[in-house]
Design brief:
It contains three helices and six strands, in the order αββαββββα. The chain folds into two domains: 1-91, no CATH class; 93-131. The chain has a two-stranded antiparallel sheet with strand order 1-2. It has a two-stranded antiparallel sheet with strand order 3-4. By secondary structure, the protein is an alpha+beta fold.
Length: 132
Amino acid sequence: MFWNLVANEIISEEWQPNVHLQAFADDFIFVISEHTGAKLKATAQAALTKFQNWNDKHQLKVSIEKSTTILISRLVSGPRAKWDNQIIKRSTSLKCLGVIIDNKLNWADHLINMKTKLTLLHQKITRIAGTN
């Protein structure tokens, strides 16, 4: 309950119209939309700075190792986001609430992952139940 009160403060914060912050439990995701790489970098960094100030205020820690950015754009290489002067690693896909989202939004990575999980589950069930 305490976490909900603390997290609600940042979620209800006033963000730019092209910045959306979503939270689930202790995970946060920003969705930021801009027309140019320069604007994207400025908007993203401003949002992260605001988020970092909230973290510092409540003495919270962000795991830079677990943090990821994904660029869904025609830009060949977009701007890099930083947290505490450390560049946040970029990936071609990320997992959010069990769904794998890739930079082309085509669900291929998610379907491959689901197939692998289902194959392993089927093998385990077959071992337990037998072939009959």
